[in-house]
Amino acid sequence: MERTNIAIVGLGTVGSGVAKLLLDHGDRTARHAGRTLWLKKAVVRDLAKPREIDLPAGVATDSLDDVINDPEISVVAQLIGGLEPARSIMLKLLESGKDIVTANKALLAEHGPELFTRARELGRSIAFEASVAGGIPIIANISQCLSANQICSLEGILNGTSNFIVTQMDEKGASYNDVVRKAQELGYAEADPAMDVDGTDAAQKLAILSHLAFGATVNWSEIPRIGIDGLDPDDLRYSRQLGYRIKLLALANLADDGLELSVAPTLVRIGTPLAEVRDAFNAIRVVGDAVGPVFYHGLGAGQMPTASAVVADLIDTAVGRTRLTFQTLEYFSIGQPPRAKLRDADTLVGRNYLRLNVANHPGTLASITTVLAKHQISIASVMQHEGENGATPLDSVPLVIMTHEATEGSAQAATREIESLDSITGPVVRLRVKD
Amino acid sequence: MERTNIAIVGLGTVGSGVAKLLLDHGDRTARHAGRTLWLKKAVVRDLAKPREIDLPAGVATDSLDDVINDPEISVVAQLIGGLEPARSIMLKLLESGKDIVTANKALLAEHGPELFTRARELGRSIAFEASVAGGIPIIANISQCLSANQICSLEGILNGTSNFIVTQMDEKGASYNDVVRKAQELGYAEADPAMDVDGTDAAQKLAILSHLAFGATVNWSEIPRIGIDGLDPDDLRYSRQLGYRIKLLALANLADDGLELSVAPTLVRIGTPLAEVRDAFNAIRVVGDAVGPVFYHGLGAGQMPTASAVVADLIDTAVGRTRLTFQTLEYFSIGQPPRAKLRDADTLVGRNYLRLNVANHPGTLASITTVLAKHQISIASVMQHEGENGATPLDSVPLVIMTHEATEGSAQAATREIESLDSITGPVVRLRVKD
């Protein structure tokens, strides 16, 4: 049987999972690839470090040159995270004639155009299924399986860490800080979870998906994003009382006047599929103009789900499918005009959840609703609980207002005006509501 | 731009949808295929029949020879249903050098080995994404996206007609016959819906998926199957009271001693994703040993969802990906040893829902539970309602028993024995329960 020689660069959690699949399940990969996928080299930083897998003799090396200078190695799983040296290593590998498989979404979100253009110049390919929603093969689904469609919208829970934290806060009533600590103990959150919880990771994934689905050439940093790091358990509780759960939702919506992209905690109606996505799972709902809605749900991260995506890409690359796809679809080409432009955020229309601390005296509700009316925002529901036992009429109490549809610009202006009222204490919490 | 000439054979509902996508959205298909997909011919039976789409002059023909004898046409969407003449036409097209895209699951389930072997001999390919669960790209997902996995199980709602009927019976409390009539009016059911409601269609789809996922070479007629045509609204109601919905579930489960395959109305716990699949939607839950559970949900049929799958296949075929996949994966090869064999049905283990009409007098429950105990079947819950107003103690009343896990053989034997008890009227309804 023909053999394709593979190298892994970076033998961390995912790299070890990939090595396991290649070493322990060669029959399986051979059956799907029509040839043996042979793990010839695995580049590690420190050869002395104990590892969870036993590599055959001669496979481990601490020299990237062992891969670069070996013409027999044609495909490399490049599994180093971060931007540098990941970027330089990928360029070197491409220049030495290797096809690349990667899981590094930050690298693609930041340097995609440079890397993809260089790969194309060199006649090489880059496969990146594992870069978004590990266990959900969303890259192949959007770029191949749904290729007969104009994608109309994408809604995704793309960051498993955030979803785990929000689920635990919601179901256990725990505070943000307590749940983050628990997530770190369980390995669901990094020591510094900032990129996950502030929406950066989800925005990077959304930028990649938007490029595939809409031809948008948007840098992830241009996507308006709010994380879950400021989320208050009170808002989870009030939302539930109103029939909603809060999810960190990445949203892409194509309209005549452009593309709406955003990442933000969003109220999602209980009973709809996205609201029921729990813990470290990811989910994506895609609407195509021919196929209608398609919903995907699976593990968003973790060693073996991500390794599953990497090995599927290794097989596709070895078979030759990846090269055909890569040559045909002009992914991230520099100079290619974008097919969709970002919409002006102020003109976006949506419903809002507002929570205010209001003075418990006559006229307060009237002054708030007058501001909303002035900005043409109509109210769908109001919820005001009595103060705690022993509260005096002068203490502030929480007031929750669900609005009907309003433009983002008017919702922002109304929020600022409400915050300036004398009867309001502290900032207004405003969250998006999806129907 | 390079051009791939396409023909459609059979311009019914799906064929017209495919023509629409090719004619109205050439830019879209060209972008994904890197070449123009040019609809050169559409073969119809009756040229005089009015059609929902306007074909360009010269495209419509009633002669298959116009396709067979045109060497410029390289890919054919063969969209004729049934076994003959669909089979002969497909063989003729393959022999004249065409690659085939088809939506005909009955043809593949019946003649797959013959057709695929012939295609392989001739160096041609057959793509068949549209044959199972139209809007869900499950063929590509199992054979490519999840190729790093041993698939452990598949659970699917694969027949939209049955799911529509069951959903309406459940939600509206309507009778089977009334809902079938409504489904026919809405176009969700054929004039003769037998193949849909008796489980044949789901079994044919399960046979195709099982071949891809497990290498099983099972004829669909060997798959134990029960349809929804005998379903009683009472069982939907009692199930709901117990926290379940009944779904026509196609199930494949790989165990050490073989593969379990079945299609049957099954109690699925409310709140789990499969239980929430409504009306004409399809859903499939796949568990892979690396990726874990992946859940897919989308429209199972209809003009444009199915056309979406056909056109994705046309693009893949034009690009050359299909040929690579087809050459590599030995789909349905005659003589290829199966990788998984069917398990002996008697040894399967599962929970059961039993509904009996019992005489409302002392000792009845004791006699039933004694039979169950004798067959080592333990009881999880019992529900017996009082008789209707005015019922005498001698009238029979329904008794519903949920069992713990038991082998299929012992459940069958116990059911027969219970049916022979004097205190039981009519047959025992036994349904599978999935946890």
TrEMBL record, chains A, B:
Keywords: Amino-acid biosynthesis, Methionine biosynthesis, NADP, Oxidoreductase, Threonine biosynthesis
Active site positions: 205 (proton donor)
EC number: 1.1.1.3
Domain of life where this protein originates: Bacteria
Binding site for L-homoserine: 190
Chain residues that bind NADPH: 105
Known pathway: Amino-acid biosynthesis; L-threonine biosynthesis; L-threonine from L-aspartate: step 3/5; Amino-acid biosynthesis; L-methionine biosynthesis via de novo pathway; L-homoserine from L-aspartate: step 3/3
GO MF annotation list: homoserine dehydrogenase activity; NADP binding
Sequence ranges assigned to domain ACT in this UniProt record: 353-435
InterPro entries: ACT-like_dom_sf (IPR045865), ACT_dom (IPR002912), Asp/hSer_DH_NAD-bd (IPR005106), HDH (IPR016204), HDH_cat (IPR001342), HDH_CS (IPR019811), NAD(P)-bd_dom_sf (IPR036291)
Database matches in Pfam families: ACT, Homoserine_dh, NAD_binding_3
Entry's Gene Ontology BP terms: methionine biosynthetic process; threonine biosynthetic process
Binding positions for NADP(+) per the UniProt entry: 9-16
Catalytic reactions of this protein: L-homoserine + NADP(+) = L-aspartate 4-semialdehyde + NADPH + H(+)
Family the UniProt entry places it in: Belongs to the homoserine dehydrogenase family.
Protein name: Homoserine dehydrogenase
